[in-house]
Amino acid sequence: QLQLVESGGGLVQPGGSLRLSCEASGVPQGYYGIGWFRQAPGKERERVSCISSSGDTIYGDSMKGRLTISRDNAGNTVYLQMNSLKPEDTAVYYCARTSSCYQFVVHGQFNYWGQGTQVTVSS
Known about the structure:
6% of the residues lie in helices and 47% in strands. It is mainly β. The strands form two sheets. Strands 2, 4, 5, 6, 9, 10 and 11 form a seven-stranded mixed beta sheet that branches. A four-stranded antiparallel beta sheet has the order 1-3-8-7, with no helix packed on it. A hairpin with a 6-residue loop joins strand 4 and strand 5 (46-51).
């Protein structure tokens, strides 16, 4: 059974950077797309990025230009590099498995997700 575990969150000052990791076990991650979404208290879930099994990437509008998504050669870990962080980026960030990055970003389609990692941007 697929399990996704996020890590790398924490407290960072505005303008700082964080790199989140999503490690998959149980099923080879390389056969699926992995997306990241975030959820802040009182706000709607927001899809921020996705990487397909072939390495194609899609970024949501909210953090475009400040994110880089990548995966390791084995395909078991996906990274989300976040730069120039703002207080409004504060949220719990989740990774999720999807069959289509387009469907994930546009329609929020996914079927497995992790427990999330908290990102707090504050001075």
